[in-house]
Predict the structure.
Amino acid sequence: MKKEIFIAICLGLLVGLLITFAIYQNKFKTQTPDDNTQELTNNPPEASPSNTIGQLTLLSPEDEIVQETEELTVAGSTAANSFVVIFVNEEELITSADELGNFSLKIKLEKGSNVIIVHVLNEDGEVTTLERTVIYSTQSLKPDAN
Amino acid sequence: MPIKLILILAVLLVSLSAPVVLKAQESASPSSEVTTQNLKDRIEKIVNEKKEEIQDAVNNLEQKKRGFICEITRISENSLSVKNSKGSQILSLTDQVEFKKGSKIIKFDQLEVGNWLVVMGIEENQVFSPLRILVSETSLQPTPRKVILGTITKVGSTSVAIKARTGSEEISLNLDKNSLLEDLNEKEISLKQVEENTQALVIMTDNEKSLVRRLRVLTSGL
């Protein structure tokens, strides 16, 4: 008698647990895609390998972009207190990285093409360079918009 | 025997009731059903309102504007062979592409080898389609320049010599009327104020002229 009751309890618990597990599993599956989407959209864009060379990481601007605004931020990171020289077409701008190695400078673009070359010089005078091309155009690219 | 059966059924019922209770907790009461429905309606309304914006954003994600500069190396019937500092490529052109030289719209057959182009277009699924091309007869590549950090070893009337921190060789640099000399605070100074054995950051042309574009003396106290 006791043995049969024990088996019945075990069976009942097992069936109950299986159903509970199935319900939770189903619930988890329906929640997962939303959670992932949120995580992806909240993640800041990471610097791609081509954004980094030696001690220089250029976070902005992206290469070969077309933008409609005149102002642009050139930002990145390098060794602390390095000199940063930015060429924007024929113009030269000199700044330096902060104690954490970060630098950021707002520049004004010329209409048309802007070749931006960022040079960083560390204490030993070693130079690392990255180049970007940014096109500044206020006109729409769509042919029917002209 | 019936007692046994009743006991087994009772235990099974108790066990099965756990998920049922759980489900019951999840299933909404009439009032919460109304709230949920209201919420759904509101979300649907907002989504409908923002549908166009979302669609535009999705299109923008799929279609990325891209632009670059290049020089024409060869002209074919419906394509251009071009090169720039990143390499060479062939641009396939359609009738949609607009060519502009200054403010004038020009035709494809007016292009010449050696012309420089600002190519703007859309990139979709890693395929680039040019839409507007600005044409220039002169190079769009800026003057090659380099930057040196070092010690000034010699100051002449139209030249300075600098020993770079990266090497032991002395580099002779020429000065002209456009060479900008400045102190640590970006204040313009004269050549007389540039002293030997001071540290300087020099921007110079990277060609046989070795012309100083900008020389910033880094030692303060000028």
